[in-house]
């Protein structure tokens, strides 16, 4: 009986030792993450506080474009990035031969159409100019929103691959102006309307729920399955202990409460 008790005690000590090694293995780690200025960097800075309590340093590098954060993950300058939705990531990998993968789905940003020179959709005149993001996946998303408003009709079945070449009906002869996403808010006063990515709208002080003339259907499976913003890493780093701690931090109640209070519906937690 004493021998059995001794064996049990030894087993408990061994398990405790391994558990301790697992929890302390990330102490002293530094994670470098690329992010859009808002909301992503703001959210990461909340996670940074949580990680600091575990002895992990999080460095947030801000970007204003959608290309460099992925290239820098691919070449190892960044450990992870947090700025894009999964559909954009998949297309980026295909176009650039990169090997970046999703680690966790974090939030969703409603996509909206905003007034420029024309203040309502009903007032749009023949030949009005509407600007949309020029990257493939977000352009399709913008065109789907315009179609849902009855402003254009797309070729049947094009879905999330739609481009301006797929417009088969355009009763108001709208001019669809393709711009880099970061330029949409800056040029809003020069067009009749613009369909703007959530992060750039927020950065310009716009809230899709209160300022947009219309937003996409956030409950649509197409939206939820393709446009949720993700934490991404280079393939092979998905199970890195420090990255997994970052995932836990980003999916914490503290982060969820921050998102809800700070962005008031313009950013929606997906956990």
Overview of the structural elements:
The protein is elongated. It has ten helices and 13 strands. It has two domains: 25-109 and 227-269, 3-Layer(aba) Sandwich (D-Maltodextrin-Binding Protein, domain 2), CATH 3.40.190.10; 122-217, D-Maltodextrin-Binding Protein, domain 2 (3-Layer(aba) Sandwich), CATH 3.40.190. It has a six-stranded mixed sheet, sandwiched between helices. The chain has a five-stranded mixed sheet with strand order 9-6-10-5-11. Strands 7-8 form a two-stranded antiparallel sheet. The chain has helices spanning 2-24, 37-52, 68-74, 86-96, 136-148, 198-203, 208-211, 221-226, 241-250, 253-263; strands at residues 30-36, 57-63, 80-85, 100-108, 112-115, 129-133, 153-154, 167-169, 175-179, 193-196, 214-215, 228-234, 268-269. β1 (30-36), α2 and β2 (57-63) form a beta-alpha-beta unit. By secondary structure, it is of the alpha/beta class. It is 39% helix and 23% strand.
